[in-house]
Amino acid sequence: MSFAAQTKKELTLIADNECCRRSELEAMIALNGGVTTSEAKRQALVVETENVATARRIYTHLKELFQIHPEVLVRKKMRLKKNNVYAVWVPTQAEWILSELGWVGLDVGEKSNVRMAGDNGVPVTKLPVIGGRKYKPCCKRSFLRGAFLAAGSVNDPGGTSYHLEISAGTLERAEQLLSLMNSYGLHAKVIQRKRDHVVYLKEGEKIVEFLNIIGAHQALLKFEDVRILKGMRNQVNRLVNCETANLNKTIGAAVRQLEVIKFIDDRFGIANLPGHLREVAELRLRYPEVNLQELTARMAHKVSKSGLNHRFRKLEEIARKLRNG
Ligand SMILES: [Zn+2]
What we know:
- By secondary structure, the protein is an alpha+beta fold.
- The protein has eleven helices and ten strands.
- It has helices spanning 3-11, 18-32, 52-66, 94-101, 137-151, 171-182, 204-214, 217-267, 275-286, 292-296, 305-323; strands at residues 33-39, 42-49, 71-76, 84-90, 114-116, 123-125, 152-154, 164-167, 189-193, 196-201.
- It has a four-stranded antiparallel beta sheet with strand order 1-2-4-3.
- Helix 2 (18-32) packs across helix 3, helix 2 runs parallel beside helix 5 (137-151) and helix 7 packs antiparallel against helix 8 (217-267).
- It is rod-shaped and about 105 Å long.
- Zinc ion (ZN) binds next to helix 2 and helix 5.
């Protein structure tokens, strides 16, 4: 099971107050559902999902909150992975349930916002954001949980990048989610993907906070475990890379210096060099593996690192002149 599916399964096991269950159901209907008018003007409420745990949750909420028995239909998706799509249908009393959830005086016949539910699903009218809606803190969390259950996904934390998103559909809905999420300081952003507006989080830390807000505590712990391990591994890798880079630099420089010195010795004899150059040449031959800093400590008179560097450049110059005859 993917990390996202595990997270959803965990979320559907949360026992909630009635107020919160209503908010969660509102979100699931808002994100994945709508009203269909296809059957001879009879308005049915339909909510579709590919996640079986989410479908069960929608069914249970409708049954417990409104004492109704929705129908559940299953079909295979035509495109892509041919996943199952579960549709929870409320063929009667749709208007009453929607008004109970806050969609009062809704003109569900309005065709401006028709979307297909799924790729071969029925045409449904997406429901608008309920104007002036204020959520209690407990219900705000539940609304976000419902939105994630219905239209959310999250990358496995072990993957290459952290990513959590909720596919909001309309811009209006995306802006609502954005403002709810950012009331917790989550730094959520919106991006448009074709006709869809997607609210997303990119920072590992904020994804962990979001999982905490919606009550996915098992998922949160797993995410943190993987994230901490990954962080440690990255730090170790960084240290190793740094050390290797420095070591290579030291060795590379020393090897070049030794080549120069040996060349001069062959052609000219280091004994014939001026005293201060002869000293560094002999020191380098005696201590081929140490870096410049360590070499300065072995000089008879105090010389700075740059002073020493300067002498090596002089030696290189001499070698070049010898080479060019
Ligand atoms: Zn509540």
